[in-house]
Structure formats: C-alpha cells, structure tokens
Amino acid sequence: MTNPRLEELRARLRRIEAMGGAERVERQHQARKWTARERIAYLCDPGTFEEIGAHVHHRGQGLGLGGVEAPADGVVTGYGRIDGRVVYVYAQDFTVLGGSLGEMHAAKIQRVQDLALASGAPIIGLNDSGGARIQEGVDSLNGYGEIFKRNTWASGVIPQITVIMGPSAGGAVYSPALTDLIVMVRGSAQMFITGPQVIEAVTGEKVSAEALGGADAQLKRSGVAHLVAGDDQSALSLVRHLLSYLPNNHLEEPPVVESDDPMNRIEPGLREVVPIDPAKPYDVLRVIEAVVDRGSWLEIQPGFAENVVVGFARLGGRPVGVLANQPRVLAGTLDIDGSDKLARFVRLCDAFNLPLVTLVDTPGYLPGTAQEYGGIIRHGAKVLYAYAEAVVPKLTVILRKAYGGAYLAMCSRSLGADLVFAWPTAEIAVMGPEGAANIIFRDEIARASDPAQKRAEKAQEYRERFAHPYVAAARGYVDAVIDPAETRPRLIAGLMALYNKHEVRPPKKHGNIPL
Ligand code: HXC
Q1: Does one domain contain both 413 and 462?
Q2: Pairing state of beta strands 227-229 and 419-422?
Q3: N or C: which end of the chain has fewer CB within 10 A?
Q4: pLDDT range class, residue 60, cuts 50, 70, 90
Q5: Are residues 172 and 44 in the same domain?
Q6: Is 256 within a domain?
C-alpha cells in the first residue's frame, strides 16, 4: 500500500528537481553551462551533498509573481564534503527566474552562511544570476544587504570562495567581492556594476559585456578575479584544489599532505638564475618552482600586476603563501596594483595560518605622476601594514635587489620577518649604486673632466662598499647568507623551527589599514 504523504513528498521533490523545466535546462546546457544541481554534484565528494530548504518558495507578493512556480526559489543550498571535509554550498539556478535573488532566495543563502560560520566550515557560492529579482523590489535589496553583512562577519573566520558561472551584475557583485577568492568561468561569467547599455546611455562609450566584465577583463585588468577556468568542470576542480591549501577556519592549521619531494633537495640550478649583470631580468617563477614541493605551486591572480607574483604552495607538505617580486616585469618595482595584490594575499594567508615566504628582488617603487596621483603612498602602505600585522611565521629570502622603502616593504626584519636569508647576489642598501653616486658624489662628478666616467667609477665604488648582503648581515638584519642551491632545505628547516610560533598583538576593535 502506498503512503499518500510519501507520494506527495516524492511528487514535490520531482518538481523541485526539475528546476526551471526541460526547456530551460536545455538552454542552460546549450550555453555550455551546467545546472546548479550538476555543479554541486561535481563539486562535492560523490553522494555527500545534503540539500536544505528545497521547499522554500517566494511569497508571491510583488509585481507579477503571484502563482509563478519557482522550484527551490532559484537557489540550491546545503552542505557536503570536499576531500572528506565539510563545506557549505549555495548554487544559484539560472533556469528558475534567471537565478534572480528575491527575499526567500536570499534567506536560503543567509541560512547556509550562518550555519557555515557557526560550525567553522568553508562556504562556497556558485553564482549564476540575473541579480536583484525585479518583482520583489526592496525585499530583494534587503536580501543582498543581509548577505553582505554575513560575508563581512565571516571574513577571516572561514574561507569563502565564490565561483562566477554566469551573469553577476550591479550590486550583486559585492557578495563575491567580499569573499576571499573569486574564480570565473571564461565565456559564461560576467561581472560589472553597470552594464554595456547603461554605459553607452550615460557616457556614449561602446563596449561588449565580455570586454567589460568577462573573466579575462576581471582577472588581468581589474584584479577582481583570482583565477579563471575554461569551463564549469575545471572551475569546480579549481575550488577543490584551492581548499587543499586552506584550513576549515581561522583556528585550525591548513591541511598537511604527504610529500614525496625530499625536504633536503639541493637545486644547483638556482646558483645560475640571477644574472651577473644586475640590470638583466630573470623569471622568479623559476626560483619558486625549484624551491617548493614539486607540483604544489598554484599562482593566484596570474596576469594581474605581473611585477609581483603571489600564490599557494607547499614546503615539506605544509601549505605556505609565496610572494615575490618579478624582475621580468617593470624590473620588479612595486606599484599600486602590485601593492594591493601583495597586501591582500598577506592578509588572506595570515587569517588562515599559512606561513609567508617572501622572495625579494626589487629596485624600489615605480616612479611617475600616474603612481603618485593614483595614491601609491596609501596603496604601498597596505603592504607595510599587512606584513607588520601578520603573526604567522614570516620567512624572507633576498635574491638580489632590496633597495630603500621597497626593501622594508618586502617583509624585512624590521617589519617582523622571523628569518631573513640572503643569496650572495643580494644588494641591500638605501638606493641603487648609480642613483647613490649621483647624490653623494655630485660635486666630484661635476668637477671631473669626464663626468660620465667619474659617475661610473663612483657607482662601482659604492657597489663594492654597499651593494652586497654583508653590511645587513653584520647588523643582524640578515640571519644567514645562503648558497642559493640550499634555499629549499633552509626554508623547510626554518618553517619547522617556527612551527609553534605564537605572537599576539595588543587587543583592539580593529586596525585602520590604509585603503
Ligand atoms: C527577475 C529575471 C531577472 C531579474 C532575468 N530574469 N533577470 N527575473 N529579475 N533580475 C528572468 C528573465 O525574465 C527570464 O525569464 C529568465 O530570467 C532568463 O533571462 P533571459 O533574459 O531570458 O536570459 P539571457 O538572455 O541569458 O539574459 C540574462 C541577463 C538578462 C543578461 C541576466 O536576463 C538581464 O539583463 N536581466 C536583468 C539584469 C539586471 O538588470 N538585474 C538587476 C541588476 S541590479 P523567463 O521566464 O523568460 O525564462 C542588482 C542590484 C543588486 O542586482 C543590489 C545589491 C545591493
């Protein structure tokens, strides 16, 4: 005998799982997009996702919503596991009212935000939405506000990752922007505050939605996105991969994995990376990849502010954040975007207990009116603030140039580096030899019969006296001058020595980082 109540439940669930109906699901697939349920099924370990709030439905108020069916109110919410660890998930369903966010849709997202925060588990949002549900007006706006508030409260407590898998327009972009990491799907994801039509109407400027807010624009030009994937599947794989570097919450350590890369691996090739000519560039990625556990490097924000490089890696199986100047781009100078990129990554790592490994080769700050008028002073200050504020183990390796304020900014001893190593090629001083010679020997150079030759002589004199690591090492600002080939074992030994590091700052409401 069938139980009519059970039959009713099954019928209701069938309607909910049909989402916006076969035709809209087909349209979603035609657009190379998976449905919300397909995305969650791939993201979570097989069979682990438990949906909550499936029966939630809008209240039918507002213009034109009466009697409109909206299965799950256009968002699938619940919890599952990734590599066995609990995660909370919400996935907007574009097949239902365009994934638009109304009062109850927002309440469902808020519910998983609350549960994730209370239980100290990461939250992952899969966004694919037409934005504020127009029919629900101010209730929809209020829903966004409640989500933003929870994003902010959870910041630094649990990892929050957003994947943009469709449109994300208007104020709706601010929930992703408040999370730790944004992954965008090339071709389907677009983020912008005002779309192409509004821009054309207001300013006359013509731009396509893709050029304005597509994945590559938001990765390389604005720095809003952290990673880009070619399709839904690889975006979701990236999220799983990202989580492998992050703890469940700020009170836990990041997950340690078995590494078959020997901890004492010597890398003789590193002795040849830095060119003899100090003006010649090289690719710092070669250094990073040679030092970290093989295959563990995951660059974040590749293509944005390429004069600095940041990313996750492992050393001896333990996750670390790596930050470096990139001499190949703008000679490795620090600029506005590079400073923002460094500071934000330092704070992400510090919040989630990842030690910081900083590789230094910078001649200083990028000069020019564009930088000064753009506020390099306040942007550059973020880097100082972030490093000085961080309490995780901080290890610095000076590869070559470390001049002036940029030397300080790149996690110097005085900003709180626990261990500072220098390669024999390191040059640590107030400024480069040519600039220094021009200032301190100005009169002598002016009086010389051949000023250019005199300048070169004086620069060489300065180089011999100051452009090496031994003055800084003599003062204890550098702990050891190391053979570049031994960088990996020295860093791993340093990390182990600092494993139980515990540093506290004076209690306060919060600091006032220059923004
Ligand atoms: C209600 C919406 C909707 C919305 C889409 N739909 N957006 N319903 N509110 N915001 C519905 C459509 O009516 C349609 O319903 C279905 O979703 C699919 O939409 P299409 O237009 O057919 O899809 P497509 O051609 O792919 O275009 C997608 C789109 C477009 C680019 C997102 O729908 C669009 O421009 N929507 C409006 C976007 C917008 O301006 N949102 C407000 C942003 S401001 P049917 O029944 O036909 O399938 C905002 C403020 C947030 O969000 C403030 C926070 C502080």
Answers
A1: no
A2: unpaired
A3: N
A4: confident
A5: yes
A6: no
Contact 165, 191 (CB under 8 A): no
pLDDT in tens, 119-138: 999 999 999 999 999 999 99
Query: What percent of the chain has pLDDT above 90?
Result: 90
Atom of ligand 1 nearest to the CA of 166: 32
Give per-residue pLDDT as tens, 260-301. 999 999 999 999 999 988 889 999 999 999 999 999 999 999
Atom of ligand 1 nearest to the CA of 148: 55
Name the residue range of residue 181's domain: 4-243
Q: Are residues 226 and 290 in the same domain?
A: no
Same structural domain, 315 and 448: no
Q: What is the pLDDT of residue 246?
A: 98
171 is catalytic: yes
Residues 356, 451, single domain; the answer is no
Residue 47 is a catalytic residue: no
Residue 480 annotated as catalytic? no
Q: How far apart are CA 9 and CA 72, in angstroms?
A: 14
Same domain assignment for residues 89 and 18: yes
**Could you give the angle at the alpha carbon of 53 between the alpha carbons of 48 and 54, nearest 5°?**
80
Residues 295 and 215 placed together within one structural domain of the fold: no
Indicate the pTM of the whole model.
0.96
